[in-house]
Amino acid sequence: MRTTIDRSGRIVVPKELRARIGLVPGEIEIRVSGSSLVIEPVAGDDLVAKDGLLVLPDGGPELSADDIRELRLGDQR
């Protein structure tokens, strides 16, 4: 999916991509990975402990097995 960067360095993240990872307005984490930028939501107080893991509470984004596989493998495929 393509988008643009304006002269101020702002990037529009398409709605479909924001929805897939639960990206909402507010603070994000951005870092360099090789020649790519990685944008992730900042884990806030909305995470809950469940069976020893931090998870999104009910109502978080629905992810299919393919979504999870893509997030885990990224460009390694």
TrEMBL record:
GO MF annotation: an example: DNA binding
InterPro entries hit by this protein: SpoVT-AbrB_dom, SpoVT-AbrB_sf
UniProt keyword annotations, A-Z: DNA-binding
PROSITE patterns per the UniProt record, alphabetical: SPOVT_ABRB (PS51740)
SpoVT-AbrB domain sequence ranges: 1-44
Alphabetized SMART domains for the sequence: SpoVT_AbrB
Official protein name in the record: AbrB/MazE/SpoVT family DNA-binding domain-containing protein
Species of provenance: Gordonia pseudamarae
